[in-house]
Amino acid sequence: MTPRTLYDKLVDSHTVRALDDDGLVLLYVDRTVLNEYTSPQAFSGLREAGRKVWSPSSALMVVDHVNPTAPARVPEMADAGAALQTSYFARNAADFGIELFDQMSPDQGIEHVVMAEQGRVLPGMVVAAGDSHTTTYGALGALGYGIGTSDIEHYLATQTLPYRRLRTLRIVLDGVPGPGVTPKDIIMGVVRAIGADGATGAAVEFQGPAVEAMSVEGRMTLCNMIVEAGARGALVAPDAQVLDYLRGRPGAPTGALWEAAAEAWLGLRSDPDAPFDREARLDVSTLVPLVTWGTSPDQAEAVDGAVPDPATEPDPVKRRGMERALAYMGLAPGTPLAAIPVSHAFIGSCTNARIEDLRSAAQVLRGRRVAPGVQAIVVPGSTRVRAQAEAEGLADIFRAAGFSWRQSGCSMCLAMNDDVLGPGDRCASSTNRNFEGRQGPGARTHLMSPAMVAAAAVAGRICDVRALEA
Ligand SMILES: CC(C)[C@H](C(=O)O)[C@@H](O)C(=O)O
Ligand code: SF4
Fold this sequence. Notes:
The chain is 33% helix and 17% strand.
């Protein structure tokens, strides 16, 4: 048999039939998750065509993008647009028979955090959903990818999608990360190294000792943020850690079925000599905590470094991009990153708001206070994560430090609810995108790890977390 990558195996095992000779197939898709923002037209399409959902139990509906995160939750949304989106969402759930976690549900949260913690995504599955960060599920050995609204409709009606096989990119992570270097710093290091277009259209498989040593939640951060290098799929071969993560979750099999599944899952890996189209390597021991200074996720620098000078960039296109980014960010070349004051700190998003993220930020905040003038908020990735953090005493640490302890949702990751920054606000943010206006018109975003956000909140400026952890 020709050696195959894990990606090839997942695509092959889900191929209903080939649609052309060039890699276009009809793919069987196991599951989806729907949000209130990208699903409405898909349901309207089904209604107009008089179609039903083929397999309602294969889908889950979660309110996450527009809901407020104010500490006291109410069923009615004050914002008229959000109220309309969420009420149509609920009507679609009821009419099409799909399970819904609305904003009042104890299981609500950011869709990708919820799918994993509920055990709705299992190794070997293909999951397509109307959100680019569906790649997160690669951490569990499942092929997740983002789709548009017309594809959501196609999925709901048929459980299949036309799918063009992707080029593969193996990213090997060697070495042991040094102090303060988290999975977020590692994926930011990867994106910086290969560029914001370095994985365009690729199915990435992360391999290597640093991946094997990483927690499953850390691998979710990798698979989530590789989208910012253009990836359309991400995978890590499932191992014993993945089994430990999944065992006992609501959607995980039990008894003999679990035993059989676990054995099969551990066999899901690329053959040793499987060919990848491309390969990249990074020694994570060379990294230090990273911070973005620009408006593209690859515009990142070591926290103990300085804002780069566009004048030293030989590529004219890159140079103009840097100049424009610095103008938007209000930064001068040569400014030490650790001298940049912040007005806001945000810990949240499907990249970095799981329990391990909250623990690492709380570790920095214990016994410390947010600097005067800094508004700091923490938005747990799910309502379950929030409850767990409360049970572990993390919420008390955040509150005592002066952070606002919120309900779950996408929140300030993309500012579709009322958590919006103003022009000129500067935010230390644990999120994945720093595009112009992402957190509000004219607002400036510096991406970093949750621990680094905590450090920035305390210092009132970008701050090397290693100084605080020492
Ligand atoms: C709203 C949705 C389409 C979008 C995505 O696909 O990623 C959002 O979640 C984001 O992070 O920008
Ligand atoms: S948390 Fe941010 S990145 Fe994740 S789905 Fe929501 S808006 Fe997109």
